[in-house]
Every structure is written in structure tokens, then in C-alpha cells.
Design brief:
The complex is a heterotrimer of chains A (776), B (167) and C (443).
Chain A lengths: L1 E5 L2 E5 L5 H8 L22 E4 L6 E2 L10 E3 L3 H16 L15 H9 L22 E3 L9 H9 L5 E4 L6 E4 L12 H5 L5 E3 L12 E6 L8 E7 L2 E7 L12 H5 L14 E4 L2 E4 L2 H19 L4 E5 L5 H13 L5 E2 L23 H4 L4 E5 L3 H4 L1 H12 L3 E6 L9 E6 L5 H16 L14 H11 L4 E5 L1 H5 L3 H15 L2 E4 L8 H4 L11 H6 L4 E5 L3 H4 L3 H10 L2 E6 L4 H6 L2 E4 L8 E4 L5 E4 L12 H11 L10 H9 L27 E4 L15 H4 L9 E3 L1 H7 L6 E4 L5 E7 L7 E3 L16 E2 L1 E3 L1
Helix pairs in contact in A: 2-3, 7-21, 8-21, 8-22, 12-13, 12-15
Chain B lengths: L13 H11 L11 H12 L4 H11 L3 H10 L11 E6 L2 H5 L2 H12 L5 E2 L5 E6 L11 E3 L3 E3 L4 H10 L2
Parallel strand pairs in B: 1-3
Antiparallel strand pairs in B: 1-4, 2-3, 4-5
Chain C lengths: L4 E2 L17 H6 L4 H8 L4 H10 L12 H6 L9 E6 L8 H8 L1 H15 L3 E6 L4 H16 L15 E6 L9 H8 L23 E5 H13 L1 H7 L7 E8 L5 E6 L2 E2 H7 L9 E5 L8 E2 H5 L2 E2 L1 H6 L8 E6 L4 H15 L5 H18 L7 H12 L7 H15 L1 H10 L6 H7 L9
Parallel strand pairs in C: 1-7, 2-3, 2-5, 3-4, 6-12
Antiparallel strand pairs in C: 6-7, 8-11, 9-10, 9-12
Classes of the chains: A alpha/beta (776), B alpha+beta (167), C alpha/beta (443).
The complex binds flavin mononucleotide, iron/sulfur cluster and FE2/S2 (inorganic) cluster.
Chain lengths: 776, 167, 443
């Protein structure tokens, strides 16, 4: 620690800090543009000049390290004169178009110009004009306003991991741009909008739709993945106009993924379901809530009476709130059914009944940043968990060794230590090899079930990396959790963590991947899992928040089962063609922005939120709808006045983290078998197709990540099939679809990668297994 | 700034790649990017100018982001991001040269070729550029031919001779 | 053109044969690589070597005049990876000495760099060569090949346990790469945008490793300093201004070119060596240290001696030793306009005051020159320069400001004349005659 003085106030700061960091510690504001705490220091805007005792020139506070005894003056004549000088230079070529600029009201330049600018400039030359750039459907540019702070450039290079933007030319002609003809395509691109201190980069979807001071702001929580990013939802006249990150160092830091930032555009999709509907004689009719609810209650009660409760299945979106899940499972159990599940894309349920607790990340999100050795198993990490990928990217730069075991070799934009890429059926055996190699390095016996496993070179390399650190973890991604041998992968990860004295955990796929267990939205006893109740069709289904055909592991099967059922009651914010086909009752329920509720994120953190806007049309919060259904069915324990009441019953209070988190299991039998023959399917869930809301955000659907799925194969596979990239392929076992062949180097042999969760590949059935592929 | 729509094959010849390899070898193994300036010169020599596609080819060859290579190509002013004539003449007009006739030499060339700075003769033979200090002020007026050949004491007779030499 | 004249030739001894005396054989015949051999064979300690350089008071020849021995001593001893970098990005208008050093005697720079590598414990070096002098880059590479073949470069040099290799890196047209950290960025394959200091290159240099960076002439002097001893070298010049210095004389003299003279030589003597004023015209002003140095009027410079201290006392800088001589045919507004354009053109674009200010300066001087000046423009120029100076990452903003301030300071009435009369004080036909381009009376 060193002691310094800022404007006469003494403070202790860590050695190596900069003056601006010290000033922030003191709450002293120093004007700045290029400085950002998460980015490297550029010191190019020169706005932060301050006076330092004994220094003849003003010093940039953002780049000047503190020294013991240093005396800093942020408001002295020298400092203020320098700041005013810089402000004048910044403004000479900046357009004075604040009244029509989207940044108006939240522009750092505008704010600082008031405090540090002179009223009139002596600059009377023509102002520079810089051509605008096409950065894609999300970010709009007005490059004449750019002050060349390079924050956006440093973001793409340092945080997003690939330098998509740069500053071309030099001097006054310097210009921020993407590579000619390219757009900004990473899954984190929207953050440059927040970073841009002026109105050069603004939100394209938000553009010209409102002035910032007209907006109401509500805190909320992202409904898209296990992280639970904190949001500020901005509304005007009860319509969500914009979503911004709410800074939370423990979770999303100051970032958001594009999915989280722009999915709100789906909230007002023409497919919003705004009135209750029932199907009568094959005809859909909009009806009053009471009619629809009566209809649903009667229908369910009838099925339960005639066929028994077990004839009803309950399918819940893993993005449903804790309260919704809790009431839904209560409803199912009240009807006498144990068939309730939220793990819609999972295919291996053999660990059910053997778990010691609720599966979770195995650590705090923030702990990820402190890991020095990581093995990521079965994860499309960059797309499934962009902000966790970002944390690992930063760790890798600081020396953490990251290795990957997966069935695809996507560029994670992370410096990797080692990669083991194998067909899906090989993953358990591969992970077993790593366990074996680590045991050997540690000189301890491995599980007896691994007696016949011999570690190969890659496994040994990964093992050597893992044992060389002091804080290791194994992280299981969505693909590992959806794998047909998920229980084995999980058990092996546990063993590995045990050998390493480290941790293992699941990267939660959905907003409530942990919350679903807490809400007991899983079958018990003889109850059927999501997969089982679709494989073995029920007489009736209750579907909450999901589009079963796109959100289940086997969409084709789900569609068939729901079509066949006598009654399907769907609680949904949207209506789709498929739904109109299979449902009997459609009950319009609120998306996250129009209801209160709770998500338990992947680290077990309880995050509740209130509605940011009024429900659209006749939409009602789903917890209320479920409560009324419970009342109509005269079930016990449905007397809740608020979602908080429901939460109190589930959690027994308002804890910061839920209890009972444990990834351990007893009696899971390792299944190292690798199925023989055929071309195995590797199915990713494309980032912008993962849930009903994001699927309806038009700007996201126009982003590069939303391309129509193709059949991706490595070069040898293409050659073997005698096709070239772009050729049409007939893919499928029974039902076939025609997909374009696409070259994806790095895919293992014997594998075809075909995305799931998309209408174009729905007919292919299960996300895992074997597909026939031939030239169409 | 619009890059003209001229499609050229952006790939580099094996000879050019060999030259680039020789440059790469100068630097530590993990610092391939250091060779980008030389590689862009080699590419420019081969193609006559640097299209964005060529720049991307160079970037990929060196394992760097295309934008990083574009930053370099647009920062240093001897890279040509647009097609130029067969002979690119750059005349230094900076003060030390101007004192000994740099500007007059440029005017003389302009008159002879009928073009201004940053223009190319209609036959595509000459492009004229204004240069900054070339570090040869004692030889003023100085002129650079195709970036690499320095011509000193460029008084009218010498200019005439040079233009006649350029076939 | 080779050396024109010299008093006490040292660095320029090898220049007499012009383009025929640069090869290794010639250099060895002149006693070349003897000092490297002596250092290695005597197993001279790094400290002793640096002490010898300190004794010589060799001040950096790139412009700032920082004592070379002291700079070398900043290099951390323990670091495993270190670099030596030579700055031949000679782009400062008026400077053309490093080009001739490498053209006529490349091996003295090579030997100097190898010895520097030994002194600071570096195994790898680069010489960054100005893009426009590509032929010199090729010559330097040829010289490197000779040195490598002769065992002066590479592993276990001359059988010692010292290994060092050296490569040439060329620029491609950017004055800012002369600034040492811009130069390092450029070697790393990026835009040459200078880095904020601290950390200084001695701690965080090329590829983030400790790096010593010196000007070509600085390195070239090393073998000669070791040959004659630090003290003898110092005594060639003046106290605190050791040795000889190359001066590049351009502009209105009869014999522009490079001159090597002892530090402290009177300016008048230097002017005489350069053949005096072209056409016998009257001296008006001199920029004594490259375009970034403040201009001095004739009477002031005529009283100066050519060394760091004397020129500084007169209110300018010895800088890189580029002496730009201007006679009475020069319009000072036009001269400044061209310099202001240069800094505007060459600003890297990174820092706000330089990016925006250099263009502003140019535009105002431009309008004065073109008869559109306003009475308040001189105050405006002074204010803008004031707002630029000392507020940027590197000294280019200061370099852009110095000419503007000094031209106005010393030639205010000429600027005022221009503003009031909307034309040059010096008749355009007189100006035209000054260049000597139209000698034969041609159009
Ligand atoms: C804008 C600018 C341009 C410079 N140009 C050169 C140059 O062309 N050659 C050079 O040797 N030093 C140049 N310098 C000085 C270098 O930054 C550095 O001080 C020098 O190379 C150190 O070598 P020395 O100590 O041997 O002089 C320049 C500095 C600035 C700020
Ligand atoms: S676009 Fe915005 S963030 Fe990017 S450099 Fe310009 S002002 Fe900075
Ligand atoms: S914030 Fe310090 S220079 Fe920009």
C-alpha cells in the first residue's frame, strides 16, 4: 500500500494502482473517455489530465501509477486548463447534433462539455465527416460523432476475443471501422453500444424510438441462461424499449450477451398470445379467461378421473420462474401425476434418485475467474455461455490453462492448452482416459471400473496440465448434460475433481436449471421424465412456457405425442402454428418482463424481480393462472396472494443462495460403451433459437448467428460422401430433411453436425444418435 | 473510402510466400505478426496494389485478424489501397526539399504528365504522389520511383531523363 | 552524396570511397570489428563497458540528447530476454545522416549494436530503417549477411560464449515510427502509435521485454569510442557534449550535405564549410536541429556554436543535427505552412490534442498564407499550441507546436504583413528564384 493525497484528502491505495483508480476509491470524479476499468489503458483521449506535484506537465490520471507521497490536484488551474483544452479539441470536429442524437441525455461528451467546455469555440473550419459503417442488425453507427477513444476496438480484441473493429488511417483521418465489408458478429457485440461514450455507436433496434429521459427503469434478471445476468429494463408507456446491463461484478460484470440485450424485441412479436383461446370442433375461439380456465380444469380433471393422474404429463420450460415451476408441479401432483419435468433437452435420467442434492455450478460464478486449470467438457461454450467464456478468456490471458473435451472444435477465442475432440459416443471413454491419467500422475488408484482404460497422448497432456495447477475445475456444458451418457460424464467429472482436489459443476443451460430442482419440478417415484412421458404418450399434457417441438431433446417425438393427446393445455406468451395444431387450450401468460418471479442461477443464487411492464392485452402472470387452476380444481395449498408468498413456501424465507447444492451421486453405474457404426449427430442449440422469446427477436434473427442450419462435416467426410460444401444433402433416418453441406474443419470423423431447436431440422428427431447422410 | 471493385486473385504466389517466410524467420516464433509490414510490401509488389482480399490473405497467412492488417496497411502511407500506375512517382515537397526546388520539381512533373497529385495518367503508366521527408534532403529535389528507387537532384533534365526511361 | 567536408573525421572516415567502401573487407581494413574482438577476447565486463561509454558523454544522436551510457545502465540485469533496437527511421525533415551512415559504412552501426547487445545482455537486435530508403535497407541486409558469414553475428561470436543476431526491419512511410515506442509497436507489426510511458523501453520494450533503443549515429560512434577511449572522445567536443557530430545541412547553401565536426564548432564555420549561402544571398533564418526545433533568426544562430548546450541557450534544440538554412527569398508564412502540413499529415491520430490540434494549426496557417488570415489568428495559433504542448503521449504535438510558436515569435511582423495585406512580404518572383530549380532560366 502507498499513501497519496488527492485534492488534499489522504488515502491508502494498492501499489501499482493508477491515479484514476485511487480517485474512484475516494469518490472523486476525474473526467475521462478512453479509460474503462475492464479494458487495457489507452490514454489517448487525454481528458483525465490532472496536476501532480513536481511534474511539470499535466499527467493522465488513467495511466499514471501512484507513488508514495504523491500529491494530485484534480481541480487546480493547471488541471482545469488542460481539461478545458482537451474538451475544446474534442468538440471542434464533433457535430453539434445533440437534439437528434440517440445518445442525448446519456452522452459523456455532452455531460462533460457542460462542466469543462467553453461556451463558444474559435474553430470555424468545416467539420470532419466520417462515413458510417454497416456493423450488422444490432449496432447502428454515426461515425462523424466518434471521438476515437478506441474503447469499442479494445472491447472486441480483449473481451470478445477477436479484433473485429480497428482504427484505420491516421491523424485527423483516423477512422474506426470493421474490416471492409464485415460486420460485428460476436455474441457480445452490443456491449460496444454501452462502451461508446458518445453517440457514434447506438442500438439499431432502439434507434429514434425514445429519448432516454422518457424511459422508466426497472431492475430485472435475464431469462436466457444459467448466469442470470442482471438487467435494467427500460419502458415507455408499458412497452419495453431497451434492455441494458445492471452491473454486478459477481455475475455479468458490466456486460450482456446480444441475446440478453436484444431478445426484448420478441416481446411484442405478432405471435404474442394476448387472449385466452380454446379449440372447439377444430376451430379456435378467443374466449374469456373464466371460460378458458374452466375448460382447462374440466378437461384435466376428466382425464385424471378416467385414466388416472399418471395419464397427464407436465412439461415446463427451464426458463419458467421458480414460482411457476413450483405451482405447476403442485398442480400436477394435485391431479395425481408424478410426471413433471423441466429438463426438456436432457436424454439421460439415470442419475435421478441417486443425487445427493441439487446439481449446480459447483462454485460461485466469480470463482471461475480464479481457476488456474480448467477442463470444459461438452460445451459450445462461446455460444451457450458467452460471459463464462469471456471470464475464461481473461483467465487464460493471465496464465490459466484451459483444456477442452468436446465433439466440435469451435473457435472459442480463448488460448487453449489442449483439445480432445471426439465423436459424442467417445466422450465418456475420453473423459475416463483423463481420469485415469490424472490418477496415474497423482499415484493413486482410479475407480475399479476404469481398470481397462488406457490413457492416450491427448488425455495425458490434459491430465498433466490439470495436475500442474492449484485450483482446478471440470465444467460440464449443455452438450454434456444433454448427452445420452450424461450421468457417466457427470460421475467421471466428480471423480476427476476429487483426484485434483478441485471442483466440478454444470454450466446451467437455462434461467432456472437449478431452480427447477429446488421447485421440485422433477418426477419422483414412478413419475416419468420429460423424455419418458413423450416417448410413452400421455392422454393429456400441461405445457408451461415451452414450445415442446423446439425445446425438447426429440422435437419430432414431442410433436407427435402432443398431437396425439386428448387434451393439451398450453400456458404460453406466444402462439405458433404447431401449438395451434396440438393444443386444446391456449392460456396467454406473461413473459419475464410482465411478471414478478425468481430465477435461481447456476451458482444457486436466488434472484427475484418485479414486472417491468404491464401484461400485454389479457395476458396474466403464469403463477396467477396456475393458482386459479389449482383453485378451480379444488386442490389444497393454492392460496397465494403474491409471487412472494409462493417463493416463501418454496425457499422457506429469502436466502441469498438456495440450500442443498451438491453434484455428488451414489450408485451411478459408469457406462463407457461407445455405440458402434453410423454417422453420429452433434446437435448444438443455436444461440438465437434457444428459447421462445429469443426466437422472436427479429434483429437477432438477422444476426450472423442465426443462419439456417446446415449439415456440417469435416473435409474427409465431405470427400467420403462425394459432396462439396454447398451441395444438398439428404439427412435423416426415417423422416429426412434436405440440408446444405457445410465444411467445418475440426469436426471429428464419423460425425455430422446439425443444429437442433430449428424448424428446418425438427424432423430429424433426437439431438443425439445416428443419422444417415447422403447426396440429395 | 471506397475500394474499387476490381476482382483480382488475392492469393499470393509461392515465390511471394517464400519471401514472406524469410521475413517471418527474423522474429521470435510467437511473433509472426512482426512480418506483416514486409509481407504487405511483398504482396503489393506482386499485385501492384493492396485489395482488401489481398490484405486478408496476408493476415491469414500470419495468423492475425484481418482488421489488424488493415490498420497497418492504411496507417503507413506507402501502401497503395487503390490501383496505381505502372510507375508511382513520389516527390518530396517538404520544407528542406522545397528550399531546393521540391515543389517546382513536382510542378514540372505535373506539367509533363498532365496530372495532379493522386492522379494517374489515362494510359495507366504514371501516378503522382506528394511525399513527406524521405531522409535525403541534401539531394533535393528527390523523388521516389515505385517506393523503392530514390532519385536525387531532380532538376528538369534529370526529370526528363527519368520519364523517358520509364517504358 | 557522400561527405562534403569534415573536421576531425571519425564516423565518416570510411566514406571517402563513396559507394565502394561499405563492404566488410573495407571496414576491416579500417580497423573494423577490432573493438568487438577486443571486448570479447578480454572478456570485458558489462559494467566496465558501460562505464567507458558513460565517460565519453555520448549523448543520443536521435534528437533528445540523452546520455547513452546512462540509458544502457537502466537495463535490468536479470531479465532472460532483452533486445537492442537501432532507430534508422530518419524522417525528421532536414535529417539525412543515418541514411549515409548505413550507405557508406553500415558495419560501424552493426559493430556498435553487437557491442551494445553485449553491454546490456541482449541476444537479438533489430534495425528499423526508414521505408523510403529501401535501397539502404537492402545494403544493410547485405552487410548483415557479410557479418554473419564472418562470424560477427550468430551463435558464439568469434568463439566466445556471447551470441547475438541482428535483423533489419523496414518502415513504410510514417514519421511517427521515429518515436521510439511507435517504432517498437511497428516492429511488432502494428500501427506505429507511441506507447504511454512509463513503463520505459528499458523495462517494457519490444514484445514487452527490456529494450535499449538508440539512434544509428549513436551506435555507429561506439566502436570509435572504444577505439580511442571514452575520455579522448569526450575531449574531441566540449564538456557535457562529447565527441563529433554529423550535421545534415540542407536549404540555401552552396553545398548541401553531411558534415562531421566536433561538438562546439561555431555555426559560422559550418556554414562556411557548406560553401556559404547560395548565390551569395543573405541568411534569414536557420532551423538548427530538424523541423521540430524552433527556428532561429540569422543574428541569433550566427552567434551559436553547434552543441546541445549552446543551441538550447539560444532557445532551440540541436535535435538530430539537421540544419535547415533559409535565405531572404523565403516567405516564412509559406515555410511554416509546409511544416504545419507535415505534422498534420504525420500525427498518428491517437491523442486528441495532437489529432485535432495539428489540423487546426495547419488550417489557420494555410488561410493566412492564402490571404484569408484574421487579425486574431496569431493569438489563436499561440493558444492552440499552448493547448497541445505537454498534453500528449509522445512529443509529436510539441514538435508541431514549436515551429509555429517560434516562427511567429521571431517573424511576427512578416505574419502580420501577410494578414493585413493578404500577400507575402517576399515577392513571389524572388521566392521562385531561391530554389535554384530554374537555373537555366527555363520556364
Ligand atoms: C516525433 C518523434 C520523432 C522522432 N524521430 C526520430 C528519428 O527519426 N530518429 C531517431 O533516432 N530518433 C527519433 N526520435 C527520438 C526517439 O524517440 C529516441 O529518443 C531516440 O531514438 C533514442 O536514441 P538516442 O538516445 O540514441 O538519441 C523521435 C522522437 C519523436 C518524439
Ligand atoms: S465509436 Fe465510440 S467507442 Fe469506438 S472509438 Fe469512437 S467514440 Fe470510442
Ligand atoms: S481517460 Fe485518461 S487519457 Fe483517456
Amino acid at each position: 500500500m502507498v499513501e497519496i493525497e488527492i485534492d488534499g484528502k489522504t488515502l491508502q491505495v494498492a501499489e501499482g494502482s493508477t491515479i484514476i483508480e485511487a480517485a474512484h476509491q475516494l469518490g472523486t470524479y476525474i473526467p475521462h473517455f478512453c479509460y474503462h476499468k475492464k479494458l487495457s489503458i489507452a490514454a489517448n483521449c487525454r481528458m483525465c489530465l490532472v496536476q501532480v506535484e513536481k511534474a511539470p506537465k499535466p499527467m493522465p490520471a488513467c495511466a499514471t501509477p501512484v507513488a508514495n507521497g504523491m500529491k494530485v490536484f484534480t481541480h487546480s488551474d493547471l488541471a482545469v486548463k488542460a481539461q478545458k483544452a482537451v474538451m475544446e479539441f474534442l468538440l471542434i470536429n464533433h457535430p453539434l447534433d445533440c437534439p437528434i442524437c440517440d445518445q442525448g441525455g446519456e452522452c459523456q461528451l455532452q455531460d462533460l462539455a457542460v462542466g469543462y467546455g467553453e461556451s463558444a469555440s474559435k474553430y470555424e473550419e468545416e467539420k470532419r465527416v466520417v462515413p458510417d459503417k454497416d456493423l450488422g442488425p444490432l449496432v447502428s453507427t454515426d461515425m462523424t460523432r466518434c471521438i476515437n477513444c478506441t474503447r469499442c476496438i479494445r472491447f472486441t480484441a480483449e473481451i470478445a476475443g477477436f479484433m473485429e473493429l480497428g482504427q484505420s488511417y491516421r491523424g485527423e483521418r483516423a477512422e474506426v471501422m470493421p474490416f471492409i465489408g464485415k460486420t460485428v458478429d460476436t455474441e457480445l457485440s452490443g456491449n460496444i453500444i454501452d462502451l461508446c461514450p458518445v453517440g457514434a455507436l447506438t442500438s439499431k433496434p432502439f434507434r429514434f424510438s425514445a429519448r432516454t429521459w422518457e424511459l422508466s427503469r426497472r431492475k430485472s434478471v435475464s431469462p436466457h441462461d444459467g448466469l442470470g445476468s442482471n438487467l435494467i429494463v427500460q419502458t415507455k408507456h408499458d412497452k419495453v424499449m431497451r434492455v441494458l446491463p445492471l452491473e454486478n461484478e459477481d455475475i455479468n460484470e458490466c456486460w450482456l450477451t446480444d441475446k440478453e440485450r436484444f431478445s426484448y424485441q420478441g416481446l411484442n412479436s405478432p405471435e404474442r398470445l394476448t387472449k385466452p383461446m380454446v379449440k372447439q370442433g377444430g376451430e379456435w375461439k378467443e374466449v374469456d379467461w373464466s371460460v378458458a380456465l374452466d375448460y382447462a380444469a374440466h378437461a384435466l380433471r376428466d382425464v385424471a378421473k378416467t385414466h388416472g393422474g399418471a395419464a397427464i404429463g407436465g412439461l415446463l420450460s427451464p426458463h419458467a420462474t421458480l414460482e411457476e415451476m413450483y405451482l405447476a408441479q403442485k398442480l400436477m401432483r394435485g391431479l395425481g401425476s408424478e410426471n413433471i419435468d423441466f429438463r426438456l433437452r436432457q436424454s439421460d435420467f439415470s442419475a435421478d434418485g441417486k443425487r445427493k442434492g441439487t446439481p449446480w455450478l459447483g462454485m460461485k460464478i466469480d470463482d471461475i475467474s480464479r481457476l488456474d486449470r480448467v477442463l470444459v467438457v461438452g460445451s459450445f461454450l462461446r455460444k451457450d455461455h458467452p460471459l463464462i467464456a469471456q471470464r475464461l478468456r481473461q483467465s487464460a490471458k493471465k496464465g490459466a490453462q484451459i483444456s477442452v473435451l468436446h465433439s466440435a472444435d469451435d473457435d472459442l477465442l480463448i488460448k487453449l492448452q489442449a483439445r480432445a475432440i471426439a465423436a459424442p459416443s467417445q466422450l465418456p471413454a475420453q473423459l475416463a482416459e483423463i481420469v485415469k491419467a490424472v490418477a496415474e500422475l497423482k499415484g493413486v488408484a482410479a475407480d475399479a471400473a476404469l481398470a481397462n482404460v488406457g490413457a492416450g497422448d491427448t488425455a495425458k497432456k490434459i491430465a498433466a496440465s490439470l495436475v500442474s495447477g492449484s485450483n482446478a475445475a471440470v465444467l460440464l456444458g449443455n452438450f454434456a448434460q444433454q448427452h445420452p451418457q450424461a450421468a457417466t460424464l457427470s460421475a467421471l467429472a466428480q471423480q476427476l475433481a476429487g483426484l485434483l482436489g478441485g471442483k466440478s459443476g454444470f454450466l446451467g443451460e437455462a434461467a432456472n436449471s437449478v431452480g427447477g430442482y429446488v421447485a421440485k419440478a422433477v418426477p419422483s417415484g414412478a413419475g416419468l421424465s420429460a423424455a419418458a412421458m413423450l416417448k410413452d404418450p400421455r392422454q393429456a399434457y400441461v405445457v408451461v412456457g415451452a414450445e415442446a417441438e423446439l425445446d425438447c431433446a426429440d422435437g419430432a417425438q414431442a410433436l407427435a405425442a402432443l398431437r396425439k393427446a386428448a387434451v393439451t393445455v398450453v400456458l404460453s406468451s406466444f402462439k405458433s402454428q404447431a401449438m395451434l395444431d396440438y393444443a386444446a387450450v391456449l392460456l396467454p401468460v406473461s413473459p419475464f418482463s410482465e411478471t414478478s418471479g425468481t430465477f435461481v442461477n447456476t451458482e444457486g443464487r436466488v434472484q427475484s424481480f418485479y414486472a417491468a411492464a404491464k401484461p400485454l392485452g389479457e395476458t396474466r402472470p403464469a403463477w396467477k393462472v396456475l393458482r386459479v387452476l389449482g383453485n378451480l380444481l379444488e386442490l389444497n395449498g393454492f392460496d397465494f396472494n403474491s409471487s412472494e408468498d409462493v417463493r416463501a413456501e418454496v425457499l422457506g424465507g429469502q436466502p441469498e443462495f438456495v440450500a442443498g447444492l451438491d453434484n455428488g451421486s451414489d450408485g451411478v453405474k459408469l457406462n463407457l460403451a461407445s455405440s458402434a457404426g453410423g454417422i453420429e449427430r452433434v446437435a448444438d442449440v443455436p444461440i438465437h433459437f434457444a428459447d421462445p422469446l429469443v426466437r422472436r427477436s427479429l434483429p437477432l434473427q438477422h444476426a450472423a448467428d442465426s443462419a439456417t442450419p446446415a449439415a456440417r462435416l469435416n473435409a474427409e467426410m465431405l470427400a467420403k460422401l462425394g459432396v462439396a460444401a454447398g451441395d444438398k444433402l439428404k439427412v435423416g433416418a426415417g423422416d429426412t430433411v434436405i440440408l446444405a453441406a457445410q465444411l467445418e474443419a475440426g469436426l471429428p470423423d464419423g460425425v455430422v453436425r446439425v443444429a437442433a431447436a430449428h424448424a428446418a431440422t425438427l424432423a430429424l428427431g433426437p439431438m443425439s444418435g445416428v443419422l444417415s447422410v447422403e447426396k440429395a | 473510402m471506397n475500394t474499387p471493385n476490381i476482382t483480382v486473385n488475392p492469393e499470393l504466389s509461392p515465390e511471394a510466400l517464400k519471401k514472406i517466410d524469410r521475413e517471418v524467420a527474423k522474429y521470435p516464433a510467437d511473433q509472426k505478426q512482426s512480418a506483416v509490414m514486409a509481407a504487405l510490401v511483398i504482396a503489393q509488389d506482386e499485385k501492384g496494389w493492396l485489395s482488401k482480399e489481398t490484405i486478408a490473405v496476408v493476415a491469414n497467412y500470419l495468423g492475425m485478424a484481418p482488421m489488424a492488417a488493415y490498420e497497418v496497411a492504411s496507417f503507413y502511407n506507402m501502401y497503395d489501397l487503390h490501383p496505381v500506375g505502372k510507375y508511382k512517382l513520389t516527390v518530396c515537397t517538404n520544407l528542406p526539399c522545397a528550399l531546393s526546388g521540391g515543389v517546382h520539381a513536382a510542378d514540372y512533373v505535373k506539367g509533363k504528365l498532365g496530372i495532379d497529385f493522386n492522379e494517374t495518367t489515362p494510359d495507366g503508366k504514371f501516378t503522382l504522389k506528394e511525399g513527406e521527408c524521405m531522409g535525403a534532403c541534401g539531394d533535393a529535389p528527390v523523388m521516389l520511383v515505385n517506393n523503392k528507387r530514390m532519385c536525387s537532384f531532380m532538376l528538369p533534365e534529370q526529370i526528363d531523363k527519368l520519364l523517358a526511361e520509364c517504358k | 552524396m557522400a561527405l562534403i567536408d569534415t573536421i576531425n573525421p571519425l564516423l565518416t572516415t570510411g566514406w571517402s570511397k563513396g559507394d565502394d567502401g561499405w563492404s566488410l573487407k573495407d571496414y576491416e581494413a579500417r580497423g573494423g570489428y577490432k573493438q568487438l574482438r577486443r571486448v570479447l577476447e578480454s572478456k570485458m565486463t558489462q559494467d566496465d563497458l558501460i562505464a567507458e561509454v558513460k565517460k565519453s558523454v555520448l549523448r543520443g544522436r536521435g534528437g533528445a540528447g540523452f546520455p547513452t551510457g546512462l540509458k544502457w545502465s537502466f537495463m535490468p540485469k536479470a531479465a532472460p530476454e532483452k533486445y537492442v533496437v537501432c532507430n534508422t527511421d530518419e524522417g525528421e525533415p532536414g535529417t539525412f545522416k543515418d541514411r549515409d551512415l548505413l550507405r557508406f559504412d553500415p558495419h560501424s552501426t552493426i559493430e556498435g549494436m553487437i557491442i551494445a547487445g553485449y553491454a546490456v545482455g541482449a541476444k537479438l537486435g533489430y534495425n528499423y530503417i526508414h521505408g523510403e530508403i529501401f535501397e539502404i535497407y537492402q545494403r544493410f541486409e547485405a552487410a548483415l549477411d557479410q557479418a554473419r558469414a564472418a562470424g560477427y553475428l550468430g551463435n558464439n561470436i568469434l568463439g566466445s560464449d556471447f551470441s547475438f543476431d541482428l535483423f533489419a526491419h523496414h518502415g513504410w512511410g510514417a514519421y511517427i515510427c521515429g518515436e521510439e515506442t511507435g517504432l517498437l509497436e511497428s516492429i511488432e507489426g502494428k500501427k506505429g502509435q507511441p506507447r504511454y510511458k512509463p513503463p520505459f523501453p528499458a523495462n517494457f520494450g519490444l514484445y514487452g521485454k527490456p529494450t535499449t533503443i538508440n539512434n544509428t549515429e549513436t551506435f555507429a560512434a561506439i566502436p570509435f569510442i572504444l577505439g580511442m577511449g571514452g575520455e579522448a572522445y569526450l575531449n574531441l567536443g566540449k564538456p557535457n557534449n562529447g565527441g563529433t557530430k554529423l550535421f545534415s545541412i540542407s536549404g540555401h547553401v552552396n553545398r548541401p550535405g553531411n558534415y562531421e565536426v566536433p561538438m562546439g564548432t561555431p555555426f559560422a564555420k559550418l556554414l562556411e564549410m557548406a560553401g556559404g549561402m547560395r548565390g551569395g544571398r543573405k541568411l534569414k533564418a536557420v532551423i538548427p536541429g530538424g523541423s521540430s526545433a524552433p527556428v532561429l533568426p540569422a543574428d541569433v544562430i550566427m552567434d551559436c556554436t553547434m552543441d546541445y548546450d549552446s543551441i538550447a541557450k539560444a532557445g532551440s534544440m540541436l535535435g538530430s543535427g539537421a540544419v535547415i538554412v533559409m535565405d531572404e527569398t523565403v516567405c516564412m508564412v509559406k515555410a511554416l505552412e509546409r511544416l504545419a502540413y507535415f505534422y498534420f499529415e504525420e500525427s498518428c491520430g491517437q491523442c486528441t490534442p495532437c489529432r485535432e490540434g495539428s489540423g487546426w494549426l495547419y488550417r489557420v496557417v494555410h488561410r493566412i498564407e492564402h490571404g484569408e488570415g484574421r487579425p486574431e489568428d496569431l493569438d489563436l495559433l499561440n493558444r492552440v499550441t499552448d493547448n497541445m504542448m505537454g498534453k500528449t503521449i509522445c512529443a509529436l504535438a510539441d514538435a508541431a507546436a514549436f515551429p509555429v510558436r517560434s516562427f511567429i515569435k521571431h517573424f511576427q511582423s512578416e505574419f502580420e504583413y501577410h494578414i493585413n495585406n493578404k500577400k507575402c512580404l517576399v515577392d513571389p518572383d524572388v521566392q521562385r528564384a531561391g530554389s535554384g530549380f530554374f537555373k537555366a532560366g527555363a520556364a
